């Protein structure tokens, strides 16, 4: 019989690898895709007549407009702005019937003309590099999940399983019947569209594994613990099927009551420390 508090004390504070912090490959790819347009717009830096110069550039090289949103760290090309005249929809991608005055107003009101004309920056490519690095930090949450999946997958492989042969990734509940002969949809009702991170097949038995890591707390953790408890409940009497949840991270410290409830109910809930102690080999026989 495992003790929850003892188990929780073995949770990891980080699974970051060196490539976790910034995806520079993606940053450079994003910059290279607009480097020509950025170089054209560079001519606006220090301009003494920026409105006229901007108008000239947009008329001759309208594709440069696609670079404007990213100067404000915005990914989308259509921006809606409210002012005293009402709601303005400004499209930086579809500019065939563009209203140049609307773009000029946008550049003035957002401060971009001031940024460029008063030489607050020296190079738009350098400036965008900083913007892209900042935006990429928002993707760290997704990278945390991917890093955890990679870590768990290495343990699955070390246990002797082979991808697309004895273990599979990202399998929907709807695919279980055709792939494994188990109609999960007849059992899982509350999470009918569930996609499992890993599924291991051994000796006619199926082990569905869900994986996550939480650096910080939040309401999502309580919902996660509740939903996985429901999956365990709904599949408890399903023959030749075992649901395994592998989770970790100090974010659970703030949601430990919900995690405790699930831990006390689920037979197969583990963390990285359990993986390091060969839990997969012990439960999948």
Topology:
Elements: H1 4-8, H2 24-32, H3 35-41, H4 50-60, H5 68-71, E1 78-83, E2 86-91, H6 100-110, H7 112-117, H8 124-136, H9 140-158, E3 167-172, H10 176-180, E4 195-202, E5 205-213, H11 219-234, E6 241-248, H12 256-265, E7 269-270, H13 272-276, H14 279-283
Task: Give a description of the structure.
With 285 residues, this protein is α/β, with parallel strands linked by helices. The protein has 14 helices and seven strands. It has helices at 4-8, 24-32, 35-41, 50-60, 68-71, 100-110, 112-117, 124-136, 140-158, 176-180, 219-234, 256-265, 272-276, 279-283; strands spanning 78-83, 86-91, 167-172, 195-202, 205-213, 241-248, 269-270. The strands form two sheets. A five-stranded mixed beta sheet has the order 3-4-5-6-7, with helices on both faces. Helix 12 (256-265) links the parallel strand 6 (241-248) and strand 7 (269-270). Helix 2 (24-32) packs across helix 8 and helix 11 (219-234) runs parallel beside helix 12.
Overall pLDDT, averaged?
A: 92
Helix and strand element order: HHHHHEEHHHHEHEEHEHEHH
Q: Could you list the spans in which at least 5 consecutive residues all have pLDDT below 50?
A: none
Question: Gap between N and C termini, in Å?
Answer: 20 Å
How many beta-strand segments?
7
Percent of residues in helical segments?
A: 40-55%
Cα radius of gyration in angstroms:
26 Å
Shape: elongated
Structural class: alpha/beta
Residue fraction in strands: 15-25%
Question: So how many helices?
Answer: 14
């Amino acid at each position: 019989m495992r003790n929850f508090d003892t188990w929780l004390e073995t949770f990891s504070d980080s699974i970051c690898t060196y490539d976790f912090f910034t995806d520079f490959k993606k940053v450079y790819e994003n910059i290279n895709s607009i480097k020509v347009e950025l170089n054209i717009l560079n001519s606006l830096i220090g301009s003494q007549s920026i409105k006229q110069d901007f108008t000239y550039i947009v008329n001759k090289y309208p594709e440069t407009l696609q670079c404007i949103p990213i100067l404000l760290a915005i990914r989308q090309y259509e921006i809606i702005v409210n002012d005293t005249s009402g709601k303005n929809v400004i499209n930086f991608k579809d500019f065939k019937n563009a209203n140049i005055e609307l773009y000029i107003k946008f550049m003035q009101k957002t401060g971009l003309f001031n940024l460029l004309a008063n030489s607050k920056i020296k190079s738009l490519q350098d400036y965008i590099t900083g913007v892209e690095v900042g935006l990429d930090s928002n993707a760290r949450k997704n990278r945390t999940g991917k890093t955890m999946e990679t870590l768990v997958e290495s343990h699955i492989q070390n246990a002797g399983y082979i991808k697309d042969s004895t273990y599979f990734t990202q399998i929907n509940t709807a695919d279980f019947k055709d792939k494994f002969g188990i109609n999960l949809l007849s059992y899982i009702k509350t999470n009918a569209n569930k996609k499992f991170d890993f599924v291991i097949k051994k000796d006619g038995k199926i082990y569905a594994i869900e994986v996550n890591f939480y650096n910080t707390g939040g309401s999502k953790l309580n919902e996660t613990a509740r939903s996985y408890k429901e999956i365990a409940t709904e599949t408890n009497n399903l023959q030749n099927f075992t649901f395994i949840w592998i989770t970790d991270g100090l974010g659970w410290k703030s949601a430990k009551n919900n995690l405790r409830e699930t831990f006390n109910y689920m037979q197969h809930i583990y963390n990285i420390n359990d993986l390091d102690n060969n839990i997969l080999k012990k439960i999948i026989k």
